[in-house]
Design a protein that fits this description.
The chain is of the alpha+beta class and 420 residues long. The chain is built from 15 helices and 12 strands. The strands form 3 sheets. It has a 4-stranded antiparallel beta sheet with strand order 1-2-4-3.
Length: 420
């Protein structure tokens, strides 16, 4: 009779392991003391907390701040008519937003439906079929027409005690609501994994921020005005420290003067004082689309420079009546060397490097003159021209001085870490 090898080798398992009858040793008082002194692990979030964070993300997408300030055309383009209401949005369309990329694992339609059943929202209304959402009450106040000072009065700066919390808007909104249920979060602008700006529905004053019961005890919470004051003070101290290093005084200065006298035009010392990078070629961009990509940013900037220069050439040609002999700058030599942007994180800022400083100034002038907004992440332009009192258009600034030096230093450090 033929018996397969696996069945022939396989032996029946014993009923119980030989070591199972041995009782576990009793813990000594010293071992118990060690276990008591050992710090406990932070408890993991329950499924109800995860459901609350998903619902908070949905409420942020339907908030007044997102509707008027972040992307006014995002929700209207995805609305459809359900049960007599023309402002319903399908769950699959809502999942396209980058805000759900901060939730791990990535939620699905079933996840959203289950979360809305466990944690019903007071702001959102679910359609009878369960696959569409709408805002219960229409937007009453126009956030777009608020002045900049009024918007900053509703903004706070936070630094959570755990790194990574600020990168999850739903988690930030859930934690703040647990400590202060009357606080309504309109949006969370995550600057990094360690800090964020939180936009609230109502103004916040210093007395409310000083209340320890309304905010997490281990968080750093302050108003945006206070953050701006501290940031300016920090920048001044950093700049003064850098000037003291670059221009020392006292005995060290006399020693350096004597060393320069005996230098006799040494090429190495003269080259070390000059920067090792090309100055004036880094542009800081702001108000980008949260879903932007590097090719989309490059396409948006190239199109802005091209159309700006073409229009300027036409004006120069019509004024001088010489189409080929004008001296206006063209966009033929304009190229973008690198786009420093972290995709799939919802960031609205980036750094762009061009070949020459003239190209950098040309790009800044083109953005300032055209005042265009990014309608989508692939670089599609929005309206012809933003309003005068609207600051949502893509802005560019050539960084110089200490900011430029710090940026190039960070680039060199990043290259060194990659080689290591």
């Amino acid at each position: 009779m033929f018996i397969p090898r696996q069945l022939a080798i396989k032996k029946p398992r014993p009923a119980a392991h030989a070591l199972s009858n041995i009782s576990e040793p009793q813990s000594t008082p010293c071992a118990q003391a060690v276990m008591e002194e050992r710090p406990l692990k932070r408890p993991q979030a329950s499924f109800h907390d995860d459901a609350t964070e998903v619902v908070k993300c949905l409420e942020l997408l339907f908030s007044e701040y997102f509707t008027h300030h972040i992307n006014p055309l995002w929700l209207p383009r995805r609305m459809r008519t359900i049960d007599g209401h023309n402002d319903y949005v399908h769950l699959s369309a809502l999942l396209e937003n980058h805000i759900f990329q901060t939730i791990k694992p990535r939620p699905t339609q079933k996840t959203l439906m289950t979360a809305l059943q466990l944690r019903p929202s007071r702001i959102l209304q679910v359609s009878p079929d369960g696959y569409h959402l709408r805002r219960r009450l229409p937007v009453t106040q126009n956030v777009e027409n608020r002045p900049k000072e009024a918007r900053e009065a509703t903004t706070i700066y936070i630094e959570p005690d755990v790194r990574g919390v600020s990168a999850c808007p739903g988690k930030v909104a859930r934690i703040l609501a647990e400590y202060n249920p009357s606080t309504s979060v309109e949006w969370v602008e995550s600057g990094d994994t360690a800090w964020a700006f939180v936009i609230l529905s109502e103004n916040i004053n210093e007395q409310q921020l000083e209340s320890c019961e309304d905010w997490p005890s281990d968080w750093i919470v302050m108003s945006k005005a206070e953050w701006r004051r501290r940031d300016e003070q920090y920048q001044k101290l950093r700049e003064s420290a850098y000037q003291q290093i670059s221009n020392p005084s006292g005995p060290m200065q006399n020693h350096q003067r004597q060393a320069t006298r005996h230098d006799f035009g040494n090429s190495k010392s003269s080259k070390s004082q000059q920067p090792s990078y090309s100055p004036g070629v880094i542009i800081f961009l702001n108000n980008l689309h949260p879903d932007s990509t590097k090719p989309g940013i490059q396409s948006f900037l190239g199109r802005s420079v091209q159309r700006y220069t073409v229009k300027k050439l036409r004006k120069t040609a019509s004024s001088a009546r010489k189409g080929g002999s004008n001296k206006a700058q063209t966009s033929q030599g304009f190229t973008i060397d690198y786009v420093d942007y972290k995709v799939k994180c919802g960031f609205t800022t980036a750094h762009v490097r061009v070949k020459t400083s003239d190209n950098a100034e040309l790009l800044v002038r083109a953005l300032s003159k055209r005042r265009r907004c990014m309608e989508s992440g692939d670089g599609l332009e929005g309206e012809k021209k933003c309003k005068v009192n609207d600051d949502r258009w893509v802005k560019g600034e050539v960084i110089r001085g200490e900011r430029e030096r710090m940026y190039w230093e960070a680039v060199s450090n990043a290259k060194g870490n990659r080689k290591a």
